């Protein structure tokens, strides 16, 4: 048979496969792998990952160190096994596509690809140093907080020992060359590390306020702080970030508390305020006047709050909807999802009504989960 005809037939078959089956088919042979590069594949729709809870009262043989993945479009569940017993005592701080920023009970950070099980271990926090030469010592508490002791080694003086929680974190990974960038906040400081660095570096913004949330796009970090202002840093200018812009909510009499930042497909940064649980307002800034206004539509996009991004609303992804999992309150307090009255769901942004519920994912499980996150699955590329 004509080799080109074989290739065309393989392409026709592969374009009809589900996301998972497509990537499995790529491994069949060199012909199938070549055919995959010419396929017009549907976009990867949002999936859920559920992390197992560390339930101390259960017998050892009942403990499952795997994570559960769920594809809502095909209504299929998958299990990622052999992630190690430390996954039970590890917190997920942020994600980017299939990569997750994890923190274990020994205060060690690592990156985990939930589909390939690849791991990148990040430097010890003992390597952390501020731009002013201050050293830090971190001790993990039982929950998601630290006891941080700061030292100024020039004078050999202990400056402070205080308990802090991680305020926010962001992760960016280049799927092709595995470059990565990590930032997380504690107190009024931001710690960052990128591939190729020897350790962690710490800096503060000119506002010297606690970080509420942040988002990273195209080498720029946008940081939301307590007074609702947003400070922007450029990490493409050398070893240290350059603060280049600040946006302030001008109407100080409006009782709005921003909780999240989101970046859209076009690169626009949005601020989100929480009114009631699962009821929110989305704000867009006019860059000329620095004024914020409420928007009720994302157009042909959907919002993944866990990844702080919007995605195209097509191939089964619901238009102008919020993909919601358990919020930061539940995560910080190590609550099991089965005990949480805030369901995993999809919410219409215009009406704030729930259009999809996923209670069955936790109700049908014999073991509880401690966290659920929406993510966009990828295999080695966009």
Automatic annotation (TrEMBL):
Signal peptide: none annotated. Residues 7-40 form the F-box domain. Residues 69-335 form the KIB1-4 beta-propeller domain. PANTHER family: F-BOX PROTEIN KIB2-RELATED (PTHR44259:SF15), OS07G0183000 PROTEIN-RELATED (PTHR44259). This is DUF295 domain-containing protein. The lineage of its organism: Eukaryota, Viridiplantae, Streptophyta, Embryophyta, Tracheophyta.
């Amino acid at each position: 048979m004509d080799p080109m005809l074989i290739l065309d037939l393989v392409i026709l078959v592969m374009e009809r496969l589900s996301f998972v089956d497509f990537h499995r088919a790529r491994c069949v042979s060199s012909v199938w792998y070549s055919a995959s590069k010419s396929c017009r594949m549907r976009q990867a729709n949002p999936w859920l990952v559920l992390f197992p809870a560390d339930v101390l009262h259960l017998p050892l043989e009942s403990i499952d160190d795997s994570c559960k993945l769920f594809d809502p479009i095909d209504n299929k569940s998958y299990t990622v096994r052999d992630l190690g017993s430390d996954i039970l005592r590890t917190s997920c701080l942020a994600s980017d596509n299939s990569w997750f920023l994890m923190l274990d009970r020994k205060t060690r950070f690592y990156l985990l690809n939930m589909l390939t099980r690849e791991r990148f271990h990040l430097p010890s926090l003992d390597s952390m140093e501020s731009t002013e030469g201050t050293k830090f010592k971190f001790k993990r508490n039982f929950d998601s907080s630290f006891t941080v002791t700061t030292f100024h080694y020039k004078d050999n003086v202990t400056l402070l020992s205080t308990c802090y929680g991680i305020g926010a974190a962001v992760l960016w990974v280049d799927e092709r060359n595995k470059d990565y960038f990590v930032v997380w906040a504690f107190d009024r400081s931001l710690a960052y590390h990128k591939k190729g660095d020897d350790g962690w570096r710490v800096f503060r913004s000119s506002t010297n306020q606690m970080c509420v949330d942040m988002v990273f796009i195209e080498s720029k970090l946008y940081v939301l702080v307590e007074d609702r202002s947003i400070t922007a840093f450029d990490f493409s200018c050398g070893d240290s970030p350059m603060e280049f812009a600040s946006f302030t909510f001008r109407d100080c009499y409006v009782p709005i508390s921003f909780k999240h930042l989101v970046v859209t497909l076009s690169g626009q940064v949005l601020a989100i305020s929480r009114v009631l649980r699962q009821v929110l307002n989305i704000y867009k800034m006019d860059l000329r006047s620095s004024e914020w206004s409420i928007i009720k539509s994302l157009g042909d996009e959907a919002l993944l709050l866990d990844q702080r991004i919007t995605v195209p609303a097509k191939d089964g992804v619901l238009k102008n909807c919020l993909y919601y999992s358990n919020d930061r309150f539940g995560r910080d307090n190590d609550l099991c999802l089965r005990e949480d009255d805030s369901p995993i769901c999809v919410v219409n942004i215009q009406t704030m009504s729930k259009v999809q519920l996923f209670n069955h994912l936790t109700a049908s499980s014999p073991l509880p989960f401690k966290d659920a996150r929406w993510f966009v699955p990828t295999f080695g590329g966009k």
